[in-house]
Amino acid sequence: MISLQDYAAAAVNIYEKDYANAPTTLNVTLKINVNNSCFWVYESPTDKVIVFEGTNDKDGIKDWINDFSIFKIQAKKITPLMNKNIKIHSGFWINYNNIRNRVHDVVHLNTQKQLSLCGHSMGAADALLCRADLLDNFNIDLPVVAFGCPSTGNKAFYDYIESAEVKLFKNNNDIVTNIPFQWLGYYHPEYILVSGNKPSWNGWTPFGNINDHSPLNYYSAMGSFC
Known about the structure:
It contains six helices and eleven strands. It is α/β, with parallel strands linked by helices. It has a single domain, classed as Rossmann fold. The strands form three sheets. The chain has a seven-stranded mixed sheet, sandwiched between helices. The protein has a two-stranded antiparallel ribbon with strand order 4-5. A two-stranded antiparallel ribbon has the order 10-11. The protein is globular and about 45 Å long.
């Protein structure tokens, strides 16, 4: 079984920045990047984790454009089997769709190991979209560990992916978990609250705290989470 801190380390290290050296027992066995949408595969002797990259400055403005493409689209227009009432964030779908077929390849080629999905920020949203996609098209039900996930769709979307195996973590008052806003039709799910840094006014905004979104703070929180 993979520890929550190993999941958090994987979500940190995929950013490939100076801070992205969190210790982990997992090994990277595959790195995929298509049009700046990225996922890595981490493995242990018994498990395999597909980890999606969140918004990363090294990818230029493309990630930010996807983040702010907040108009919703009906999921049935993308994957016809899905309930017509389900609406999802269009920018996050664009990001996931770039790598969707490569993710399918990883899932279908897996024969022995326990698969799961993980991500931070937009990567967490991609993990939720991936879960819905695999459920809808292949009846494959994968666990998700998501850190600092923005709202990814309406309530019908969250009802569809709901499971005890979907763990959504929120560090203190992480601003990203509070957006896009509910008045835009986005559903805000119940999060598992953690604290990986001392709450402070530093990074405060009326909508939440920017600094609370750091992937390192999620890594720190998972080290003491019970």
